[in-house]
Write a structure and sequence with these properties.
Number of helices: 6
Protein name: Repeat uncharacterized protein DUF346
GO biological process, one term: peptidoglycan catabolic process
Pfam family, one: DUF346
Organism: Stackebrandtia albiflava
Shape: globular
Strand order of the largest sheet: 1-6-5-9-2-10
Strand content: 35-45%
GO molecular function: N-acetylmuramoyl-L-alanine amidase activity
Helix content: 10-25%
């Protein structure tokens, strides 16, 4: 029987507050356990509160007269604290009738369960419970190598009419999990998801930031977030309910916008006056927001803000000079940054809890002719792509189980500029632009060789594309010759490619 003894560690790495109960790694029900997803419940116990945050805890640990414990792998209390109870099979799911990618079968075998401690009749989930559950779900799905569609509510899988978790739009909650996976899993960038909206941020022809977005309720909107004068490309991600966007000012100072809901954006500089010589890269990590950039000495400068202590920290990672723009992403509990050296080598910095930042080159000492791009894949590998000196797409990846670096050239012909890579479900996608303005798209998933196509986009791509994964779709955005933002998206269920133009005036 499989177990998940890593549960507490991955939750803490995601910034979730954890309390471990008893010998939880060995406390479980007999029977098979091979989880593929996460199932959400509410306890239907007494009303929880800040003063009585977990009235259902004892029952979830010990069970009821009609159902022996443990009744879930973890309980989420009113304050958002995760009480970890079991690393193995629990009596929480019953039989699954099938929902989304979760098949019909034994739910206790297939699902990791959260019991969110609220009564579900006169009480809704607290905000702290909601965001802790989103982050914890993303952490477990990332470790399992699954997307947000593998998170379900008990009322979706139940064959006996369960209503839990009550008072929650499960599609919206899954979208927040997907956004968190995107931000923490390497898809932070020019395009990112926020709630049910898709965002693309760019410097406009007036030198300020346009935050393009689309949602089902608003359509396309293009608010100007100011911050002039700006240069280069942006990076954005979502952390703890806020969207964060970073860009380089023309005065070499970082511009950082932060915004939630209908509020106007805030703007600060993270103590970077005169230090920023490249486009920034960054990601959320646990309770922290991170950003990296090239400093005036050509070294990798790092800043991060910790929301738990409200402290801004940072410094320089190593003594490796580089050119161009870095890319940064999270793999498991690890932080990774890649860039290219002046001689065309690959520069790679890494850090995880318990070590100082280190660096290597993955054996690539020449041939890198673009900014790299990369991502974490299914919790087992991390990948990087770049244009080589022959103009083709070069690929390297580190495989955790074997501890080896692998890779080669993906067929599909030459391109120019910088590629952008991201993960959609179990698929790897890379977009770039051809010299004639065609869209270059490479793709791979388990069981196939790498393929390529152009999504029918020919002769109109004038800037480096940026991609985005959302539930059920993957997207690409690019600047056209007139400076407007063109958009294509692939709908998984139908195989249809949609197209529109979001307008605006984007700087080159």
């Amino acid at each position: 029987m499989a177990t998940i003894p890593w549960l507490a560690d991955v939750l803490r790495a995601e910034g979730v507050q954890v309390v471990e109960h008893g010998d939880w790694r060995n406390y479980m029900r007999p029977g098979s356990f091979d989880p593929i997803g996460v199932l959400w419940h509410h306890t239907a116990a007494s009303t929880s509160s800040p003063q009585n945050p977990h009235p259902g805890l004892s029952v979830v640990i010990n069970g009821r007269p009609d159902l022996p414990g443990p009744l879930a792998q973890a309980l989420v209390d009113y304050n958002g604290v995760f009480h970890v109870i079991s690393a193995g099979r629990c009596n929480h799911a019953g039989r699954s009738g099938g929902s989304g990618p979760i098949p019909v079968g034994d739910g206790n075998t297939m699902m990791v369960g959260w019991e969110i401690d609220y009564n579900g009749v006169s009480q809704e989930m607290s905000p702290a419970q909601y965001w802790a559950s989103v982050k914890a779900t993303a952490a477990v799905l990332r470790r399992l190598g699954r997307g947000a569609e593998f998170a379900r509510g008990h009322k979706e899988t139940s064959t006996t009419g369960k209503i839990d978790p009550a008072f929650i739009d499960l599609n919206a909650m899954r979208a927040d999990v997907a956004a968190h996976l995107a931000g923490s899993g390497g898809v932070s960038g020019t395009a990112y998801g926020y709630g049910d909206s898709q965002h693309f941020t760019a410097v406009n022809t007036g030198g300020t930031l346009t935050n393009f977005s689309w949602s089902p309720s608003t359509g396309v909107i293009r608010p100007d977030w100011g911050g002039a004068a700006l240069a280069g490309r942006t990076v954005g991600y979502v952390h703890e309910g806020l969207q964060h966007v970073f860009a380089r000012g023309a005065d070499d100072t970082l511009r950082h916008w932060f915004q939630s809901g209908g509020n106007p954006p805030g703007l600060d500089d993270w103590d970077t006056a005169g230090l920023v010589k490249s486009a920034p890269a960054g990601f959320p990590y646990g309770s922290q927001q991170h950003v990296f950039f090239r400093n005036p000495q050509g070294r990798l400068e790092h800043r991060f803000y910790d929301t738990s202590g409200h402290h801004l920290n940072g410094g320089v990672w190593g003594d490796i000079p580089f050119v161009g723009n870095p890319v940064a992403f999270v793999h498991r509990d690890q932080q990774h940054v890649f860039a290219r050296t002046a001689s065309g080598g690959l520069a790679h910095w890494y850090w995880w809890p318990g070590i100082d930042p280190g660096h290597d080159d993955w054996g690539v000492t020449s041939g890198v002719a673009s900014d790299p791009t990369g991502f974490s894949y299914r919790g087992q590998q991390h990948h990087v792509f770049f244009r080589n000196t022959a103009g083709n797409l070069e690929h390297r990846f580190f495989d955790d189980p074997s501890g080896t670096v692998n890779g080669g050239v993906w067929p599909g012909g030459g391109f120019e500029g910088n590629p952008h890579a991201f993960v959609h479900r179990d698929q790897q996608h890379v977009f770039a632009r051809r010299p004639g303005g065609d869209l270059a798209h490479w793709y791979w998933w388990p069981g196939i060789d790498a393929g390529h196509d152009d999504w029918g986009v020919r002769g109109v791509v004038a800037g480096d594309p940026a991609g985005l994964s959302v539930p059920g779709q993957h997207h690409v955005f690019f600047r056209t010759g007139d400076g407007s933002l063109a958009h294509r998206f692939f709908i998984d269920d139908t195989g249809h490619i949609g197209a529109d133009n979001w307008g605006g005036g984007i700087a080159a």
